[in-house]
Amino acid sequence: MKTPKPVSRQQVRSIDEIAIKDFQMPGVILMENAGARSAEIIDAVAPEGLIAILCGGGNNGGDGYVIARHLQRMQRKVEIISLTDTTALEGDAKINFDIVSRASIPIQLIASREQLTDALDRASTIIDAMLGTGAKGAPRGLIADAITIANSKPALKVALDLPSGLDCDSGIANQPTFIAEQTVTFVAEKIGFKKNNADKFVGVVSIIDIGVPQKLLDDLFVSSNGGR
Predict the structure, then answer these.
(1) CA 80 to CA 157: how far, in whole Å?
(2) Per the domain annotation, does 37 fall within a domain?
(3) Which residues, 6+ apart, have CB-to-CB distance to 39 below 8 Å?
């Protein structure tokens, strides 16, 4: 399998759009592949004890729901910590939330810093499934609180796709940014990972194949680079 070159925010968006529209791959399949393969890596690196998954309201949170389901199947103790109004979820994230809500996986709906602190005190591993590659600027509200509190805990910290607060393209770490020992990133590394000391926040990077056709990646890099 070829290792793709690092990708930008726009290329990430293009990969998803082309896979769904031109290759007729439902987004929920891409999310399932991302979550299932991430769970394998997390199971391998996470110590014994509770795995707490901080879930935002977008597809990054949807990936977190998939991971929770697969970790449960691996006999891991897992809990979802939701930082969003789950009634407002849409698309693939809603599909996977509906599944985990029926799967006897504990879900905490967080409304305050105090609840966050209590929820993360018991975790031996904290998963960042809050903000994805499309996020720009500094995290706000409960997500900012969750990042700050998570960073203060001794638990192993794992980011999905990229640490929340880190800019995908520039590698600039906003205030606050999740400090991960491990980052499980989808399709390819992000171009920001090698800029502005981003390595201090991404830690060890593992690239996950989510099933995107090789032809899509070949065509994307040819068009974006003006040839091979």
Answers:
(1) 15
(2) yes
(3) 66, 67, 70, 71, 74
The pLDDT of residue 4 is above 50: yes
Q: What local confidence, expressed as pLDDT, does residue 226 receive?
A: 36
**164 within a domain of the structure (yes/no):** yes
Give the helix ranges, DSSP H, for the chain. Answer: 9-21, 27-45, 59-73, 91-100, 113-121, 141-151, 199-202, 214-225
Residue 105 lies in a domain: yes
- The rounded radius of gyration (Å) of the Cα atoms in the chain is 17
When divided into structural domains, the chain yields a total of 1
Instruction: Count Cβ neighbours within 10 Å for each residue of 24-52 and write b for 16 or more, e otherwise.
Output: ebebbebbbbbbbbbbeebbeebeeebbb
Query: Which tens digits make up the pLDDT trace of 33-46?
Result: 999 999 999 999 99
pTM for the complete prediction?
Answer: 0.94
Label residue 196 exposed, middle or buried (CB < 10 Å: 0-12, 13-18, 19+): middle
Measured distance CA(184)–CA(182) in Å, rounded: 7
CA nearest to 186, candidates 212, 151, 216: 212
Chain mean pLDDT for the chain: 94
Rounded to 10 degrees, the C-alpha dihedral 201/204/210/213 comes to 100
Tokens of 148: 């700050």
Provide the token pair at 111. Answer: 């409304």
